[in-house]
Amino acid sequence: MKQQPGDVANKLLFENERVKVWQMDLAPGERSDFHEHTHPYLICVIEGDTVDADFENGKSISIPVKPGQVYYVEPGSRETAVNRSQTRFREFLIEIKS
Prior knowledge:
CATH topology: Jelly Rolls
Radius of gyration: 13 Å
CATH architecture: Sandwich
Largest sheet: 5 strands, antiparallel
Shape: globular
Number of domains: 1
Oligomer: single chain
Helix content: under 10%
Strand content: over 45%
Distance between the termini: 31 Å
Structural class: mainly beta
CATH superfamily: Jelly Rolls
């Protein structure tokens, strides 16, 4: 049975008809909800050195990051973000709705 997706990040900061702005804050060892990205989005890294993505098919990837990096990501993935590092991970995630 498939998991029901939760929120794409910890806290919704802003939403209108065009965008949703989220904050993700993961302490070492913490994980997000399992979630699905239904819109293209930007990730703006604020703090951290790595974050992992555990996908529903069992695959896991580790992504090296640096504060100030910005990523554009196409929709479609279903995963849980996991902080397996010893450093807090923080980002702003901007979903582009239209």
